[in-house]
């Protein structure tokens, strides 16, 4: 397996670099010459250890990456692509999620974190945000094929009909009842906090819910017996804190913690890895609000 790794001297992207800017990811097997060529073409690109990929900022990043890859592939050994094409013809992947194209494979699936993670591991894979498909060159066929059972299984699990059947099967079960009660509790926008370890007010922090902003700590004592199913281990010294969802501006302005939370922490300052998806979600949420506005 060709391992994608970061060259010495290139660390995680600076705070907010790819959290609030459009762009595209790209991964490829590490070698010094390839990295040097890539960095000359994309001087603003930053390596992400968490995503095991390079992030290229900019609204046209996907197209620019595509042109660079086309040039790289033209310069590389043509036998690698020919070998990949021959391997596919001899032992093809038969799947509704994969199409055979002129320059490689086009992959379109329902969203799944497993699919995204697996495809990011494939050398030279790239996501086309405009067409909403993954591109994988022929030369990466063997790497793609090794991961394909997991990719296809995750894609099928996330088909709307499969999700609907699972939801129907859960109806009326103890799991379904607990899930509904948990959802109802979540909608109350409250969280039991230790009275001697209270988070800051009006600042994004991360309890078990994800990133939230506490707006009030009432002093009302929590009744452990009532909420034991939702907050295991809650004791009588807890008080209710009321929270709201943070805005995109708040998340962009939040400076990430440099170290992960300590073990058993009940709330912590969010890390860069937590802020990135929260910013993307907030950006989508605010875009939907603007679209609905008269």
Given as residue ranges, the uncertain stretches (5+ residues, pLDDT < 50) are 1-19
Mean pLDDT: 83
Major sheet summary line: 4 strands, antiparallel
Task: Please trace the helix and strand order, writing H or E for each element.
Answer: EHEEHHEEHEEHHHEEEHEHH
Counted beta strands: 11
Q: Going across the biggest sheet, name each strand in turn.
A: 4-5-7-6
Note the main attributes of this structure.
disordered N terminus, alpha+beta, 2 domains, 40% helix, HARP domain-containing protein, 294 residues, four-stranded antiparallel beta sheet
What's the structural blueprint in terms of helices and strands?
Elements: E1 23-26, H1 32-41, E2 46-48, E3 53-57, H2 61-75, H3 78-90, E4 98-100, E5 104-107, H4 113-120, E6 126-128, E7 133-137, H5 141-157, H6 160-170, H7 174-186, E8 190-194, E9 204-205, E10 212-221, H8 224-227, E11 238-244, H9 248-253, H10 272-292
Protein name: HARP domain-containing protein
Question: Could you please describe the fold and organization of this structure?
Answer:
The protein has two domains: 23-160, no CATH class; 174-292, no CATH class. It contains ten helices and eleven strands. The protein has helices at residues 32-41, 61-75, 78-90, 113-120, 141-157, 160-170, 174-186, 224-227, 248-253, 272-292; strands spanning 23-26, 46-48, 53-57, 98-100, 104-107, 126-128, 133-137, 190-194, 204-205, 212-221, 238-244. The strands form three sheets. The protein has a four-stranded antiparallel beta sheet with strand order 4-5-7-6. Strand 4 (98-100) and strand 5 form a beta hairpin. The longest helix has 21 residues, at 272-292. The protein starts with 22 loop residues before the first strand and ends with a helix. Residues 1-28, 156-189 are annotated as: Disordered. Residues 179-189 have a biased composition (Basic residues). This is HARP domain-containing protein. Residues 8-23, 169-178 have a biased composition (Basic and acidic residues).
């Amino acid at each position: 397996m060709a391992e994608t790794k970061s060259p010495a001297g290139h660390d995680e992207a600076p705070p907010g670099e790819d959290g609030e800017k459009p762009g595209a990811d790209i991964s490829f097997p590490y070698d010094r010459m390839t990295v040097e060529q890539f960095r000359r073409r994309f001087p603003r690109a930053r390596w992400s250890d968490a995503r095991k990929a390079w992030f290229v900022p900019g609204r046209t990043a996907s197209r620019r990456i595509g042109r660079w890859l086309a040039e790289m592939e033209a310069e590389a050994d043509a036998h690698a692509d020919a070998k990949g094409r021959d391997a596919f013809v001899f032992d093809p992947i038969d799947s509704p999620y994969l199409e055979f194209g002129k320059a490689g494979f086009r992959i379109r699936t329902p969203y799944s974190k497993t699919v995204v993670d697996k495809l990011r591991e494939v050398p030279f894979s790239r996501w086309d945000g405009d067409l909403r498909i993954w591109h994988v060159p022929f030369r990466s066929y063997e790497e793609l094929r090794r991961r394909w059972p997991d990719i296809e299984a995750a894609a099928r699990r996330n088909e709307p009909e499969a999700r609907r059947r699972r939801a129907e099967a859960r109806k009326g079960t103890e799991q379904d009842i607990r899930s509904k009660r948990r959802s109802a509790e979540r909608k109350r926008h409250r969280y039991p906090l230790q009275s001697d370890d209270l988070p800051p007010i009006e600042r994004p922090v991360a309890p078990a819910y994800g990133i939230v902003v506490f707006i009030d700590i009432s002093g009302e004592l929590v009744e452990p017996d009532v909420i034991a199913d939702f907050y295991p281990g809650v004791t009588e010294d807890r008080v209710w804190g009321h929270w709201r969802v943070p805005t995109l501006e708040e998340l962009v302005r939040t400076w990430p913690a440099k170290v992960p939370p300590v073990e058993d922490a009940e709330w912590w300052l969010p890390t860069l890895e937590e802020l990135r998806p929260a910013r993307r979600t907030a950006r989508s949420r605010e875009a939907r609000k603007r679209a609905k506005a008269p």
